[in-house]
């Protein structure tokens, strides 16, 4: 009996939607499936949950989906919701006020955005291009991510020592990164830690773990750690709480 009931329901919905001019659930579902966004939503969710790992490019069929996600508002809403969660956690923290209450923020696609660079790389459908990214970063024109600029200022005002930790190397990108951060409203942080010659070749997890371990040995309490990559948040001394920002455009191992 079940298939007959489903056919009758479908016919009823089709007639009803025709009569009322409404788009039926069946029609919108078919549209979602035919344009591939259903697959791409699943892909993005799997990427964000770290179920898909070490991926090199966005599936070509998801180009329009990722483009729309990044620039039509959903990315911003997702970041805003995460920042709301961070702030509700921050409000529960009782600071020691000994100058050692630290908070770690990643830089690229956490504080400042590379979405305009990735627009030219088909939002990650094209493979990673080190020289292209280098040229982009050296322009120092990455816009601040608005919700994170607000978070940063709240953390500084509340008395956290905000420590920015980035995989960018000091020699090539030191001054331009400081300038870019400053012109996007990131000032008043405690330190900006970048890769030195000694960090060359280290994976992001190893490099960032070593820095956090060093900070804890110096006596810092790492209350929170925010990044757009899992490699910002994994390894040793990750912080009392970690927060993963969305990034469906690239994966840093
Ligand atoms: Mg990043």
TrEMBL record:
InterPro entries: Acid_phosphat_B-like, Acid_phosphatase_pln, APS1/VSP, HAD-like_sf, HAD_sf. SUPFAM superfamilies: HAD-like. GO terms for molecular function: acid phosphatase activity; nutrient reservoir activity. Residues 1-21 form the signal peptide. It holds the Pfam family Acid_phosphat_B. Keywords: Glycoprotein, Signal, Storage protein. May function as somatic storage protein during early seedling development. Belongs to the APS1/VSP family. This is Acid phosphatase. It comes from Acer saccharum (Sugar maple).
């Amino acid at each position: 009996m079940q298939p007959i009931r489903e056919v009758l329901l479908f016919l009823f919905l089709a007639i009803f939607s025709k009569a009322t001019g409404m788009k039926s659930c069946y029609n919108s579902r078919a549209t979602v499936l035919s344009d591939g966004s259903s697959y791409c939503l699943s892909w993005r969710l799997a990427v964000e949950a770290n179920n898909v790992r070490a991926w090199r490019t966005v599936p070509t069929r998801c180009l329009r989906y990722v483009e729309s996600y990044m620039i039509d508002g959903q990315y911003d809403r997702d970041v805003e919701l995460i920042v709301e969660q961070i702030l509700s956690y921050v409000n529960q923290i009782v600071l020691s006020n000994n100058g050692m209450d630290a908070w770690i923020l990643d830089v690229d696609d956490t504080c400042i955005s590379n979405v305009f660079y990735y627009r030219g790389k088909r939002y990650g459908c094209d493979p990673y291009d080190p020289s292209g990214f280098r040229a982009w970063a050296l322009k120092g024109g990455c816009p601040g991510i608005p919700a994170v600029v607000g978070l940063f200022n709240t953390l500084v005002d509340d008395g956290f020592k905000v420590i920015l930790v980035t995989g960018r190397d000091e020699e090539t990108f030191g001054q331009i990164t400081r300038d870019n951060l400053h012109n996007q409203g990131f000032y008043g942080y405690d330190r900006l830690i970048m890769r030195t010659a000694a960090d060359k070749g280290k994976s992001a997890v190893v490099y960032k773990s070593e820095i956090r371990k060093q900070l804890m040995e110096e006596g810092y309490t790492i209350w929170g750690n925010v990044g757009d990559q899992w490699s910002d948040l994994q390894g040793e001394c990750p912080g009392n709480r970690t927060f993963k920002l969305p990034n469906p455009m690239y994966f840093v191992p």
